[in-house]
Amino acid sequence: MNEIPRHHFRGRDGVRLAYRELGEGRPLILIHGYLSTAMTMVSAGIAGRMAGRGHRVIMPDLRGHGDSDRPHHAAAWPPDVLADDGLALIEHLGVTDYDLGGYSLGGRTVIRILARGATPGRAIVGGQGLEAVTHTVGRGGRYRHVLTNFGNFEPGSPERAMEDWVRASGGDPIALACVLDTFVDTPLEALARIRVPTLVLTGAADGHNTSAGALASALANGRYLELPGNHATAITTAQFDTAVTDFLDGRNAARLPPGQG
Fold first, then answer.
1. Torsion of CA 173, 179, 180, 186, to 10 degrees
2. What is the DSSP letter of 118?
3. How far apart are CA 3 and CA 134, in angstroms?
4. DSSP E strands: which ranges in 13-157?
5. pLDDT tens digit sequence for 172-222
6. pLDDT digits over 93-132, tens only?
7. Could you tell me if 171 and 40 are in contact, meaning their C-beta atoms sit under 8 angstroms apart?
8. For a disulfide at 214, which of 123, 130, 154, 184, Cβ 3.0-4.6 Å?
9. Contact predicate 92/19, CB 8 Å
10. 142, 141, 109, 138: which is closest to 123 by C-alpha?
11. What is residue 187's DSSP assignment?
């Protein structure tokens, strides 16, 4: 997996950000979730499968993650900076005819990029529901507790397990905690103005699933599909692949009424 080329671009504030590409064809920008990296899209299998179906898959490392810069100063973490970075990537690539997708925090970032005016042909929002999009204040409290208290957790505790995972993955706890301060709400009226055809997918055992259908209904052209699995596993299922492929190809438009799955 390490042979996948790494490229760089600059955020609007000059922060150096990384992305990887796989495959050739119609551009598909895929954004990973919190505490993950672009390579997570590869290890989950979705990047390779989309590349194999004729897509140029472009996978950024979010600010503070992976091979992107991990600044510690507050000025580098203004509200909605992840959407700023996404828009900067689109500008850097010079693409106008492309698709956009994301999972977990990546899915919420897709919503923010759309709300800010991006117009991909189609969009995919995985592992997110309406509640997490319209009410972001206070989210990530469990992560913040761990990231700001490294070294203080008992072995065998859930907090220590998360700390160990962040350390093993090479994560920067200070930068990752800063990410949590950048979230902004997307109100219902802003969602209603998003006219890009958007597929919302969540696993049946994902806590976001309770309001995922409502998120699709709040969008002007949203569709919702429930998948097997939970927040961690739904993206790895064959059903996720099929749904995304069908949607990007336009084949599921007749099968899925708006806001339903």
1. -160
2. -
3. 39
4. 16-22, 26-31, 55-60, 99-103, 123-126
5. 999 999 999 999 999 999 999 999 999 999 999 999 999 999 999 999 999
6. 999 999 999 999 999 999 999 999 999 999 999 999 999 9
7. no
8. 130
9. no
10. 109
11. -
